[in-house]
Amino acid sequence: MERLSTESLAALADDVTTPGYDRSVVRPGILHLGLGAFHRAHQAVYTDTALRLGGGDWGIVGVCMRGDSVARQLRPQDLLYSVWSRGADEDQLRVIGALTSVIVAPDEPAALNAAFTDPGIRIVTLTVTEKGYCLDGDALDTELPAVRADLAAPDAASTTIGILARGLAARHASGGAPLTVISCDNLAENGSRLARALRSYAAIAYPHLLDWLDSSVRFPCSMVDRIVPAMDEAGRERQEQRLGLRDEAAVATEPFTQWIVENDFAAGAPDWAAAGVRLVADIRPYEAIKLRLLNAAHSAIAYTGLLAGLETVADVMTDIRLRDFIERLMRDELAPALAAPPGFDLDAYREQLLQRFANPHLHHRCAQIAMDGTEKIRQRWLPTLASLPADSLLLRALAAWCHYVLCTDLALEDPRSATLLQLRNSDAPLASRLADLLACLGLPAGYEPERQALLLYYCQSLSADGPDALLATPKFTHEE
After folding, report:
1. Which pLDDT band, with edges at 50, 70 and 90, does 136 fall under?
2. Which of 246, 259, 193 is nearest to 38 (CA)?
3. Buried b / exposed e across 397-408, counting CB within 10 Å, b at 16+?
4. pLDDT per residue over 198-210, tens digit each?
5. What gap in Å lies between CA 207 and CA 215, rounded to an integer?
6. pTM of the entire structure?
7. d(Cα 104, Cα 110) in Å, to the nearest integer?
């Protein structure tokens, strides 16, 4: 079938939305690090809408941080791609034209340097996942081998923090035009934490940058929300039939989308507000709701679903036992621990989440959500867990993760996977391995003996009874 391109746009059906603006005159204004499916279904869509509504030089230079696979998908298509959002009663397909160029960071350092130094670039956005920030808690983890290597040779940096610092150093040297840097990853107070990590790195590698970072660079926090499953060949073929053209960079998602950004920009921004972005003074209540309700529930779905042999989020939501567990977890433990901002209906949001999770069109794989558990659990579960009684549904979800890591042969993809695999394959008693696993979450040695006893109990019960152990086991206390 013919490939999606500028020339083939005319062949699209009338119900497919096309960019609707002259892409040839749009100059780049945004540099985006991490050109994955989420960015293409989220920030790029908002920017495409803003360009359609109000124009302006806000095209996106997309940066592939590791390999060149996304670049190879997009370049033969004139950087066009399609986004298909499907729900129970909504089906929308649109072609996004906001990308003006694509850079492969490891292969094209000169092009990336030129983008950072271009004064027309006024915003840098990032979607590099939680682990991409190289954090240990709230601080830069300078003991990570990759960070140490970058600090030893900053001009050859390979981490996100190192690449960003190198680019900002080049911008400063070329005149220091003001810049806004926006994290779009699922980290609490993501902009503030990015700024701290970057300052820590710069203090060692580029100390002359520190005053300029304070005076000319802004780091607003942001909260993003849209479920974007990984695309596979079957999904591309479905989208090809719907589009009528072959799109190697196709993205499928849900109708729901949300982006909330602190209104603190150094040099302007697209008219994102007209495109549906909510600009606020304080992001913290919104991001807490997202991280500790949606993302927390997603992780619980992933680990319980994998232990039950279920592939997707929708599969879990069709399992009456597991759906009841997730509903009770959200209603009785996750939501009550949150403080909603004025006018925010937390109960309605929770019900909307359950509907989104049940969307059968998404094919959102539990294994995708299960990745990087040691990073995600710190953000999504631990703050709420600390406020709950010793035996809680959330503790049982944590037991599911512990069992998944220590007692199964399911695939592990995690920044600490080497340590996790050592624990999985160790001959040490389960209680000892469990304590070492909790240390990977940053929990101290001797962490709450009662909770550890409960986790051990549920891990052992999972081995005997499967996920039913989390659903029906009576309350257990350390004293017993």
Report:
1. confident
2. 259
3. bbbbbbbbbbbe
4. 999 999 999 999 9
5. 14
6. 0.87
7. 10
On the 0-12 / 13-18 / 19+ scale of CB atoms within 10 A, 471 is middle
Q: How many CB atoms lie within 10 A of CB 22?
A: 10
How far is it, in rounded angstroms, from Cα 324 to Cα 321? 5
List of E strands, 108-265: 123-126, 135-136, 139-140, 179-183, 217-218, 222-225, 251-253, 258-262
User: Which residues neighbour 400 within 8 Å (Cβ) at sequence distance 6 or greater?
Assistant: 300, 303, 304, 307, 458, 462, 467, 470
Q: Single out the residue of 270, 289, 281, 311 nearest to residue 225, CA to CA.
A: 289
CA dihedral angle for residue 116, residue 120, residue 122, residue 126, rounded to 10 degrees: -50
The residues pairing with 30 across neighbouring beta strands, listed in sequence order, are 60, 123
Beta strands 179-183; 278-280: pairing state: unpaired
Strands 222-225 and 91-96: unpaired
- 420 SS3 class: helix
What CA–CA distance (Å, rounded) separates 132 from 128? 5
Structure tokens at 174: 């070329």
**Burial annotation 379-395 (CB, 10 A radius, 16+ → b, else e):** bbbbebbeebebbbbbb
Sequence-separated (6 or more) residues with CB below 8 Å from residue 1: 240, 244, 245, 246
